[in-house]
Amino acid sequence: MSRIKLNTLDPSFKHRVARQPGGEAIRACFACKACSAACPISVVDKRYDPRKIIRMALLGMKKEVLESDFIWLCSSCYGCHEVCPQNVRFTEVMFAIKNLAVAEACVPPGLTGQKALLKQRGRLYEVGEFENEKREKLGLPPIVEHPEDYDRLL
Amino acid sequence: MEALLYLGCTVPVRNLNYELSARLTARELGIHFRDLETFGCCGFPVKSLDVRQTTLIAARNLALAEKEGVEICALCNACVGTLTETAHALDTNPELKAEVNERLKEVGLRYNGPVKVRHYMRLLWEEVGLEAIKSAVTRPLTDVILAPHYGCHYLKPSELTAGFDSPADPRTLADLISATGAQVTDYPSLKDCCGGGLLGMSEDVANALAATKLIDVAATGAHALVLVCPFCNVMYEGQQKKIVKAAGLDLKVPVVYYPQILGLALGLSSDQLGFKLNRVKPSGLLKIVEG
Predict the structure, then answer these.
(1) Which of B9, B23, B200 is closest, CB to CB, to A123?
(2) In A9-154, which residue ranges form alpha helices assigned H by DSSP?
(3) Among A21, A70, A119, B217, which one is most buried in terms of CB atoms within 10 A?
């Protein structure tokens, strides 16, 4: 990574993360790296490193964080959450960061597709005649799609 | 006892063996499941887009359960996690609850709370209990060796699962397997994440996570890996062929759901329990149990 240029940093970024639901405790981090040690993703992909992401956010590297590929690699296993001595709740912080990335139009296409499905069907997978016939053969009750509330609320 | 069966998105379409076996074993053990047709997605899939929307969708389902006055029992770790987390947030944050209820008005609902949410395994553990399960076993699974996989949201965050099981030293699934008469095998990657949460983002990283466990479980000689979550199933069963091929390995790990195993021990047949739908056939296991 190249040198950090102070005048490109956004010192308000950490406060914006902290205002998101789940992001509240990011400023409590004292950089002990327990999160990174507990993270199963950083074992298989070095680009993903919880402590690095927190440091970048605290320094104000807004663009580098929100436009990165690696913020989408959290599997939300809560391994970091369990070991954090400062109760940063990093899994939730990651959701807060991803939510900000989405708001700035850096959204992976798969995610918007899932939301569209929920609005159309109220569920991720279609339940049509074929699925319900299969269910009936096994003695299971039919599934009825109720997308109305989802369409209104999402 | 009575509970509303919360199927979520994946189980009623792709994991009918899990649904069938959960319904049958519950009936055998005195748990009365009621279906609520209006239940839909729990909201977890939109959490990366907007946490507020997840809260709203989860609250909608909680409010539907509240109208029935019955607790929720879910089969998917992600559904249990999302609904529990939302109920906890609404019950402890009056401002959030007021905000959510303002939106729920649009669909004619209101959440007052609390609404209880439990995984089916937790109902078995807390409502039926190990001793009652042991005494209901009519066909002990002697000589069957099984490897448990808990899944992340079953155990974590511990602030939501406190009093049930421990993320550092989990035991409920292992003990529930033992109750069927089967032997439980331990292995190094017991507590690993399946990677299912990022399959849609990076298949390679997700597969790399799942590979370690498949290799470990194959090495133990277990007859099957036992799951309690359809997300984990996508990785260990659905992706298994791909993972094994990419790693240049030659192994097959049969994958089963806990209620299928429990059902066998309660004397139900593999046909009734939907074993035909298991894609990596647990032939060794079924040969021991049914001959």
Answers:
(1) B9
(2) 13-19, 34-38, 40-44, 50-59, 62-66, 79-83, 90-103, 109-121, 129-137, 148-153
(3) B217
